[in-house]
């Protein structure tokens, strides 16, 4: 818990830059690299976006009150019918890489420093969202349209486990998040269900040891994903509509959002059948159901943000809930914000909308 002075600090950001990608289509994925850039100040970040069949990597920096954004890399998939739904940064051997997955069920992994493609991760359904564990950055979970959650050693390109069975999602999985340690996965789907899965089964550990040894070993070629049939927790009562965003706030507290604009912060306990709901809030968006609008969380989990249909952004200080959110508005922002991301120090917030616009907000120091 933060100090009282920090808890009640006003949330104040100002829009620093606006750029528009040439495709002018919805930007479903935005991710900011948490690795600090060498020889740069804390106002410089790499960030990536994904939309249609392309991935773009940008560098944003601010020096002497002047900000610049440069497109440093762009990847266009050879399949014109591909559509990327999510992208995430992670680290392989101290090298930043960006992973993106979507309609065709292939997660592409780009080594940004070497400008090369690593081995793709192939799924049997569309990949709606991906997540990496901070403590084990090679560990990746994916949410698929074929009702499954998959666990990968993404660096080795080996699938460790499929979470599917009698106690699982009955429709497509829309959202997934690995906790910091990589020991639990939370998922949400079109069946209104939230599940928590364990990555600690012995068979998964055995597959992970094989993956760490590398593809030259016979065991690597013969290994098959372990099938996990039972979640450690699932609930169909937290939400009444598609669960399209889930995030770990702490080791046992989860925030989830559904397409009918209901937000819940709840405590996970594997020994209990029902969740302990700490905070529930319903925002007004009229009668429309909108899904694939995702929550953004700062690394410290102090700030939580969500985009709105009218182009505004709600931001909460999670240390002093329940409170009304701070609302960010901008004359140039009039379309649905689908995704947003905070920089590793929480000083920068980047959002993307339905017509390919990217808004870079930076923390404004109070005088």
TrEMBL record:
Transmembrane segments: none annotated. Keywords: Repeat, Transcription, Transcription regulation, WD repeat. Gene3D superfamilies: YVTN repeat-like/Quinoprotein amine dehydrogenase. InterPro entries: PcG_WD-repeat, WD40/YVTN_repeat-like_dom_sf, WD40_repeat_dom_sf, WD40_rpt. SUPFAM superfamilies: WD40 repeat-like. WD repeats lie at residues 166-207. Pfam families: WD40. Belongs to the WD repeat ESC family. This is Uncharacterized protein. It comes from Adineta ricciae.
């Amino acid at each position: 818990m933060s100090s009282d002075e920090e808890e009640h600090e006003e949330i104040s950001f100002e829009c620093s830059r606006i750029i528009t990608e040439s495709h002018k289509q919805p930007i479903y994925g935005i991710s900011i690299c948490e690795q600090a850039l060498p020889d740069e100040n804390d106002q410089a970040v790499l960030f990536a976006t994904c939309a249609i069949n392309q991935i773009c990597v940008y560098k944003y920096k601010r020096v002497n009150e002047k900000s610049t954004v440069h497109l440093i890399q762009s990847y266009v998939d050879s399949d014109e019918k591909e559509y990327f739904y999510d992208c995430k940064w992670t680290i392989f051997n101290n090298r930043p890489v960006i992973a993106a997955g979507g309609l065709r069920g292939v997660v592409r992994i780009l080594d940004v420093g070497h400008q090369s493609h690593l081995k793709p991760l192939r799924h049997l359904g569309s990949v709606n969202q991906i997540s990496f564990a901070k403590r084990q950055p090679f560990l990746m979970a994916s949410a698929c349209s074929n009702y499954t959650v998959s666990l990968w050693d993404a660096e080795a390109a080996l699938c460790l486990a499929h979470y599917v069975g009698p106690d699982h999602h009955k429709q497509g999985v829309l959202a997934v998040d690995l906790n910091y340690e990589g020991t639990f996965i939370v998922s949400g789907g079109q069946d209104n269900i939230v599940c928590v899965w364990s990555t600690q089964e012995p068979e998964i550990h055995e597959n992970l040891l094989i993956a760490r040894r590398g593809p030259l070993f016979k065991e690597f070629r013969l290994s098959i994903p372990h099938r996990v049939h039972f979640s450690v927790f699932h609930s169909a009562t937290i939400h009444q509509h598609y669960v399209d965003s889930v995030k770990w706030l702490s080791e046992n507290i989860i925030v989830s959002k559904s397409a009918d604009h209901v937000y819940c912060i709840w405590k996970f306990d594997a020994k209990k059948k029902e969740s302990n709901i700490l905070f529930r809030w319903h925002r007004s968006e009229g009668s429309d159901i909108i899904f694939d609008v995702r929550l953004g969380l700062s690394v410290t989990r102090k700030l939580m943000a969500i985009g709105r249909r009218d182009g505004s952004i709600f931001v909460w200080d999670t240390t002093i809930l329940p409170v009304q959110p701070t609302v960010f508005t901008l004359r140039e922002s009039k379309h649905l914000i689908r995704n947003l991301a905070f920089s590793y120090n929480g000083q920068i917030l980047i959002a993307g909308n339905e017509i390919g616009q990217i808004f870079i907000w930076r923390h404004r120091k109070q005088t």
